[in-house]
């Protein structure tokens, strides 16, 4: 134990009674909240209300957003959906994933990733993540492929682009489709190209906490015209609404069309609405500027935290960028010189930082297969059965098979929150976060001793 650290008075931490680094209270909360609503959004929403057109596949705000976002991502086609999960579901179905097929997904993501697979009747098959980024590990894919594998669903986790070059190579080897879950990664790049349509199709989320927020909503993207047509049909009750039909649509009455309503596929109603589309367009106009600010914030914070022994902030990976939708910080007790477990250190540090006034969340605490849905695989609730020759789900859904996902979650937390994410913060708040972390780390011996006492009193 470092002598000066050991001598540090534990009362120097807010957890033990000191004044917090980032005090809240009557003076107000210094955090920036998200989304940032300006007169641009107000005017956009008012424009919709004045126009009186609130919905429709060919409604003006939806189609304008689709064009603008397609241009932003560098995709040929984009479709607005009512959420990111539905964008992923239509992407999977439109690229040919069918009931009983298997789709490879990372063991660490938000549950919407495997749920999108289940919604088309297919079976999510988990693989572990890579340590550096928390994204699907391409090296783990080969071992998970069976005769029934149809697609890979990589997630650009926390805004960091997955290793698409390796994933595309793997997909080619096994003749698999790729659908990108870019829900958290608007504007992230791989070898200079924005993610989303680097595979066969992809889905983004417009949910309030995302870097491109609109309340709720999603955006499907692809470069393949046939996939776009199929996806458009799937989001419109399975009717044949070919993209070309826009030409014959009365812009003032987008709900009235000449076509006969005939459903050809098991589609649903996954379209977005005009209020969300108009809001998202105003946000998209500022997305490049806000993304840059978020990346500057991340660099600033990573530089400061990277100097603390045993603290690992997100790091840039050559050839890939992150838009830092979430800022996950990993702690290594051994390198920090502490005799506690990763979980003890994670929980104690979190408590100490929250006491200093910081927003800190776990977000997820276990690999996805640990969730009840996957533990039970209840066929009476519609959980699909694997086909003969397919993956042994009892084995694949065993959470202990994902040690890198578990280790990441045991030893890390997310700085900032859904309501106050990094992208919303002024530099001054980011600097207070660095200062608070430094303060806590200077007293980590006292904190670790406190953590051990806490575990003892609980155990
Ligand atoms: C990784 C990931 N995938 C999918 C989704 C689903 O998006 P939505 O909530 O818009 O359906 C989210 C966010 O909620 C997400 O974080």
Describe the protein in words.
The chain is α/β, with parallel strands linked by helices and 459 residues long. The protein is globular. It is built from 14 helices and 13 strands. The model has no long low-confidence stretch (mean pLDDT 94). It has two domains: 3-35 and 286-364 and 406-458, Aspartate Aminotransferase, domain 1 (Alpha-Beta Complex), CATH 3.90.1150; 39-283, Type I PLP-dependent aspartate aminotransferase-like (Major domain) (Aspartate Aminotransferase, domain 2). Pyridoxal-5'-phosphate (PLP) is lined by residues 83-85, 109-110, 112-113, 155, 181, 183-184, 205, 207, 218.
CATH class of the largest domain: Alpha Beta
What is the 3D form? globular
What's the CATH architecture name of the largest domain?
Answer: 3-Layer(aba) Sandwich
* CATH superfamily heading of the largest domain: Type I PLP-dependent aspartate aminotransferase-like (Major domain)
Most strands sheet: 7 strands, mixed
Beta-strand fraction estimate: 5-15%
* Distance, first to last CA: 25 Å
Mean pLDDT: 94
Class of secondary structure makeup: alpha/beta
Strand order of the largest sheet: 1-9-8-5-4-2-3
* Quaternary structure annotation: single chain
Helix content: 25-40%
SSE pattern, N- to C-terminal: HHHEHEHEEHEEEEEHHEEHEHHHEHH
Residue stretches low in confidence (pLDDT < 50, at least 5 long) are none
Number of strands: 13
């Amino acid at each position: 134990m470092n002598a000066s650290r050991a001598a540090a008075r534990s009362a120097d931490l807010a957890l033990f009674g000191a004044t917090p680094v980032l005090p809240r209270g009557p003076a107000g909360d210094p955090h920036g909240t998200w989304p940032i609503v300006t007169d641009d959004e107000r005017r956009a929403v008012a424009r919709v209300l004045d126009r009186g057109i609130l919905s429709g596949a060919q409604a003006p705000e939806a189609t304008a957003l689709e064009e603008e976002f397609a241009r932003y991502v560098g995709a040929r086609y984009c479709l607005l959906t009512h959420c990111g999960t539905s964008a992923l579901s239509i992407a999977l179905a439109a690229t040919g994933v069918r009931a009983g097929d298997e789709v490879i997904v990372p063991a660490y993501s938000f549950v919407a990733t495997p749920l999108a697979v289940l919604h088309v009747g297919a079976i999510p098959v988990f693989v572990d993540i890579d340590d550096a980024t928390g994204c699907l590990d391409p090296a783990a894919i080969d071992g998970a492929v069976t005769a029934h594998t149809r697609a890979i669903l990589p997630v650009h986790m926390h805004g960091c682009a997955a290793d698409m070059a390796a994933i595309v190579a793997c997909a080619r080897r096994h003749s698999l489709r790729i659908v990108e879950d870019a829900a958290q990664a608007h504007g992230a790049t791989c070898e200079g190209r924005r993610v989303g349509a680097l595979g066969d199709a992809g889905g983004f989320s417009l949910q309030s906490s995302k870097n491109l927020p609109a309340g709720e909503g999603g955006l499907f993207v692809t470069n393949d015209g046939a996939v776009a047509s199929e996806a458009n049909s799937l989001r419109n009750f399975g009717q044949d609404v070919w993209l070309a039909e826009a030409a014959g649509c009365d812009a003032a009455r987008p709900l009235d069309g000449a076509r006969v309503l005939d459903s050809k596929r098991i589609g649903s109603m996954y379209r977005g609405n005009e209020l969300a589309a108009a809001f998202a367009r105003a946000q998209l106009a500022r997305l490049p500027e806000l993304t840059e600010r978020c990346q500057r914030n991340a660099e600033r914070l990573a530089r400061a935290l990277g100097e603390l022994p045993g603290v690992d902030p997100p790091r840039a990976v050559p050839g890939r960028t992150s838009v830092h939708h979430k800022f996950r910080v990993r702690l290594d007790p051994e390198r920090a010189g502490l005799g506690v477990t990763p979980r003890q250190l994670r929980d104690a540090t979190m408590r100490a930082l929250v006491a200093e006034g910081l927003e800190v969340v776990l977000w997820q605490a276990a690999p996805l297969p640990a969730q009840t849905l996957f533990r039970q695989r209840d066929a009476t609730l519609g959980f699909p059965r694997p086909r003969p020759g397919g993956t042994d789900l009892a084995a694949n859904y065993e959470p202990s098979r994902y040690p890198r996902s578990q280790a990441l979650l045991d030893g890390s937390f997310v700085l900032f929150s859904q309501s106050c994410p990094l992208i919303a913060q002024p530099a001054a708040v980011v600097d207070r976060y660095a200062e608070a972390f430094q303060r806590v780390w200077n007293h980590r011996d006292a904190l670790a001793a406190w953590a051990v006492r806490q575990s003892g009193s609980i155990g």
